[in-house]
Design goal:
Blueprint: E1 3-12, E2 19-21, H1 22-29, E3 53-57, H2 62-70, E4 82-84, H3 87-95, E5 100-105, E6 113-115, E7 117-119, E8 126-127, H4 131-135, E9 142-145, H5 155-164, H6 167-175, E10 182-183, E11 186-187
Parallel strand pairs: 2-7, 3-4, 3-5
Antiparallel strand pairs: 1-5, 1-6, 1-9, 7-8, 10-11
């Protein structure tokens, strides 16, 4: 593990909604889900756009798989979403679509979209995808950033992994918008993963 990430939930900047639960997200995205209109969530979208426009990552994306596993409980996505090839495209589409909702890594947040606070379950506290909330395991859609090797890494590859875990490498992780996990050169295996991500 070389860092942590949080899947942020984005809506259009003018959307009045401020928070959402994992269950509500599942009901928006899963096959047979019961939420298709913003008014069902108590939100009134400007210009009368009540229909929820689901923005998704493409099915080959690790972000798509993580959201499916940890938000939808491994159930299938319903058809009819707008599937984007990259995280930037997700955010750009939401920024220009008043009725849209989508998800992507926290590093892709911009002032053009609103980031919702998320609760792991009804009645539980809502948390924003921040560094502190990821490290404290309060944000429920957090994940580890991993590097895989085929068997034991060659010395040159191990040197690179060690550098990523060093103070210099972790500074780059942080500067890239992700959550560093090294403290004093040590990596905690339990640094990432919120209540909804285990």
């Amino acid at each position: 593990m070389v860092g942590c990430d949080a899947l942020a939930v984005f809506v259009h900047h003018d959307n009045p909604l401020e928070e959402i639960t994992i269950d509500q997200l599942a009901e928006i995205y899963r096959v047979g889900g019961s939420l298709s209109r913003w008014s069902q969530l108590g939100a009134r979208i400007p210009a009368g756009r009540d229909r929820i426009v689901r923005v998704n990552r493409q099915s080959s994306s690790g972000t798509y798989e993580f959201f499916r596993d940890h938000v939808l409980g491994k159930r299938d996505f319903q058809l009819g979403s707008l599937d984007m090839n990259g995280s930037k495209e997700v955010v750009d589409l939401i920024a220009s679509t008043p009725g849209a909702i989508g998800y992507s890594g926290m590093a892709f947040a911009t002032p053009a979209v609103k980031v919702l606070r998320v609760s792991a379950a009804p009645g539980k506290a809502f948390h924003a995808p921040t560094v502190a909330n990821v490290l404290s395991r309060h944000y429920p859609i957090s994940r580890s950033l991993l590097i895989y090797t085929l068997g034991e890494p060659r010395p040159s590859i191990q040197k690179y992994i060690d550098w990523l875990r060093s103070a210099d490498g972790q500074r780059i992780v942080a500067d890239s918008g992700y959550v560093p996990i090294a403290s004093g050169g040590k990596v905690s295996a339990n640094s990432c993963g919120g209540a909804g991500a285990n």
